[in-house]
Design goal:
Blueprint (H helix, E strand, L loop, with lengths): L2 H16 L5 H14 L4 H8 L3 H9 L6 H10 L14 H26 L6 H17 L9
Length: 149
Amino acid sequence: MSKMKGLKLRQLSMAVKEGRAVPIDKLGQRLRDIREVLGMTQKQLAKRIGIGQPLLSRIEEDVSSCALKTVARIAAALECEFLGVVTSRQALELMIKKQAAKKANGLIKRTFANMALEKQAPGQKSYDYQLKKMIEELSANPGPELWEE
């Protein structure tokens, strides 16, 4: 085995054993890498799971074109487990707070605009206070109404 193949084997083996997350657009490549490190051809793997080699090739190129069940079958045929991981780009609390601020800002602006038309508009201090209070209220108990446009 060449030094490069040995290094790839060790790195991939460690990544798979640790269950490192892989972005969906890289999942097909990860399956291909495992298959290649094992020394298995596409034709051999396809036969193990009962699909055609051209389909397996497409899956390795773009895994989003197949069902999760098929991905799990491919992983099992490679003596691996498929564990789906969903991660958020930011804390869920922050997502709620941002949406609450967006929603509250829209509601408060409309209310204050109507009051301005009636020449009853309070000052900026009052606006800021009401906005903060509404954000807190919406964030405290998020529901479907928070996400309606």
